[in-house]
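Quick check before the chapter quiz. The format below is the same one you will see on the exam, so make sure you can read both the input and the output lines.
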Amino acid sequence: MANSAAVPGRPRSRDAAGLPAVTPDGIIAAALDLAASQGLESWTLRQLAGAVQAYPAVIYHHVGDREAVVSAVVDRVMGMVALPPEGLPWREWFAALAAEMHTVLTRFPGVARRMAVHGLSPEAAGPAIDRGVRALERGGFGDESAQVYRFLTNIIYHFISVEDEHSRNREAYARDVARWTRHVGDESMPGLATMSAWLNALATNPEQRADHNMFDYAIERCLDGVEARLAVIRRT
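Here is the expected output.
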């Protein structure tokens, strides 16, 4: 860690030590790296200070407390999401947004959960909201456009969050699946047996697991439901 205090025999400044200046952008970039490697909630401000070779007080000075840094990280991650182009039909637009968010957010475990619970700043979320709500308005959702947007994006965040947890706790997830698969062939509860057989197939057959993407399935079924709601809106 860099030493900006006067210590005998040590450089008195970052420049003398051959270190780059600490900037807000550099701090957020370092926090992004920590979020990618450890998860959004698994690093400390002291670790971040070590990553930029500065004292924690320097983080406070340039960005703020840990909450401020986390908010900046989440906004930065949202900025990495390439929005689908203007003019796409609403369903295609949201399917493309879901795929892009999945690609980006899974690189930073914990960010999707943060988005679902705390949301984003208007500056970070604004471009996506503007484009998505307008796509819904063109599609005929009228006064429900904002609600539909919130519903669909929260579904996206939720399922990515679930994947994050499974990835971070693979052993626990494997134990849970093993418990469920004990009920394969249970004639006393045939519905449970069906669910157990399905989970067992996913757990033991890599090809089937690869072919069955719960995220894609969930998004498509939600879009089906929203499309059904659109039919109701058009009839009223």
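If your answer matched, good. The chain has two domains: 14-77, 82-168+205-235.
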